[in-house]
Fold TetR/AcrR family transcriptional regulator.
Amino acid sequence: MSPAPTPRPRDAATPRSRDRDATARGLMQAAIRVLARDGFTALGPNAVAAEAGCDKKLIYRYFGGMDGLLESLGEDIALWLAGPPPELPEGAAYGNRIGTLLSAYAEGLRGDLALQRLLAWELAETGAPLRKLDAARSAAFGQWVGGMLRGSSPPAGVDAPAVNAVLLAALHYMTLARRSMGRFAGLDLATPEGQARLDAALAFLVDRAYGPAPEDAP
Amino acid sequence: MSPAPTPRPRDAATPRSRDRDATARGLMQAAIRVLARDGFTALGPNAVAAEAGCDKKLIYRYFGGMDGLLESLGEDIALWLAGPPPELPEGAAYGNRIGTLLSAYAEGLRGDLALQRLLAWELAETGAPLRKLDAARSAAFGQWVGGMLRGSSPPAGVDAPAVNAVLLAALHYMTLARRSMGRFAGLDLATPEGQARLDAALAFLVDRAYGPAPEDAP
DNA sequence: TTCATAAGTCACCGATTGGGGACATGCAAG
DNA sequence: CTTGCATGTCCCCAATCGGTGACTTATGAA
């Protein structure tokens, strides 16, 4: 899920590669580019084919339509979450792991416009192809985070999955709001200061949630 | 911002009211209904006029187009956040107020499909008319919450606006995710149990954020 | 070299979109 | 009663949409 290696609005001189796999890949990357640039409302056969520089008919021949193309995109997990997991000290506490994991993911998400557009899409529409895309993305993400938490467990009495979901949801929302509105709930997300306050608030909540409970201190 | 008092797909027998203000209001309410039912991707002149049961030409005559209609919707703050503020004990602590306020808002948001659609819209697209709509909504919300927090202040050392923004963002995201995907980050949001875990996690975070700091305990 | 087949292109279809011009009609002022 | 005007309706427009049939052309096997 990166902006795309090859900016491939067809060169009119080159006589088309006549290589099915290559053009199919080109269509997939074009779809990602269109999604990143113009959002899901513009993600149609016409736009994708124009971006890829070939005829839209090939979308139907090779993928059976846009739904099939999206499905193929979901299966190609290599395109998702390209960044390697962040380094972690051996015996790091659960809260520490969640904190660094969250900020690493935040940085990756901020740089991945297509992923942002996909998240917004998931919130706006329902539909079978979208569900499959989300399932693939969720699975990849789950694996990414799962491997990083292996061997450490949250403090007792804390519903860690629910708390983590809340923090992740907040991160998603504010990242999307930053791009589209630039501000949210009175905070200016466009400025580095606003962004810093947000990151600090997230870190603060992680610390309070997974640090020692108030009554634990002697 | 409620589903609409009058389900007004024109009665073919009644010969049209010939009342400019009434039809203008009807168009606004129709727009809200279309937004709630089909989402912002379907919110066009054709759909709104069909829903209102009159000709789309009137949208251009009375509002100058869809953008003007949306702007008028924003100015009509009476349609937003109809619910009255929840009751609060006199000397309630800041954390308590945030908690009850958050859950009251959550309940209202869950029941207001049009507002949900609007939030998703704001995350998906940019544009002048949308910005004005959001500004109106944000202002109304700010007043709603502002009045309820008057006279109490957060614990020192806590960036309350940022923390509240995070919690609110999480609430928004999970409410939208519940409607569209039904699940998020491994949590099943459709079941009452999942919803309860989420509410509990939010309350837990509020408590930890605004309760006594770990080192405060003797 | 021939030739079947797949890769690619082009032109077209019906439906729907966001608009606007031309016209009918009811109401209220004269 | 007549007349002016705002209200409402109808029909048309160009553009775009998703989708497909018919065609050309390159390539690899015989």
